[in-house]
Amino acid sequence: MLVRDVDSTVGTPRHVCGEGWESKRLVVAADGVGFSLHDTTVGEGTQMELQYQHHVEANYCFAGEGEVVDLASGERFQLRPGSVYVLDNHDRHVVRAIKGDLRLVCVFTPALAGEETHTADGGYEPIRVAPDWTATD
Prior knowledge:
This protein has 137 residues and is mainly β. The protein has a domain at 15-109: Sandwich (Jelly Rolls), CATH 2.60.120.10. It is 0% helix and 45% strand. Strands 1, 2, 3, 4, 5, 6, 7 and 8 form an eight-stranded antiparallel beta sheet that branches. It is globular, with a radius of gyration of 15 Å. The chain starts with 14 loop residues before the first strand and ends in a 28-residue tail after the last strand. It is an enzyme of class 4 (lyase).
């Protein structure tokens, strides 16, 4: 069983910050469950253009108001507590925090290592997993 709280990530490599956002990575690849789980805050007034080419991401909004824009279609979707959006096709998108800080629970698969920050194209590199030298054929 894994039990961890958000406060335990503060000041560790699992607490990653960028311009207008911060992510507290509660579950990461090293935990061995196949996904990572993050408590993410996007500051009010922040706009981020992102695309996760190596990951699928699900996001559950639990505070604040904002929107996500699908850049391929131009469709805009309102975000408020209780909203969920899933980037299941490596969608290039914009996330905006419009009213209050946008608070999201984010799930990535495959899991993030935990220390990543966004690359120039708004995504994360795939993690490099060391081979399991204990496995036998």
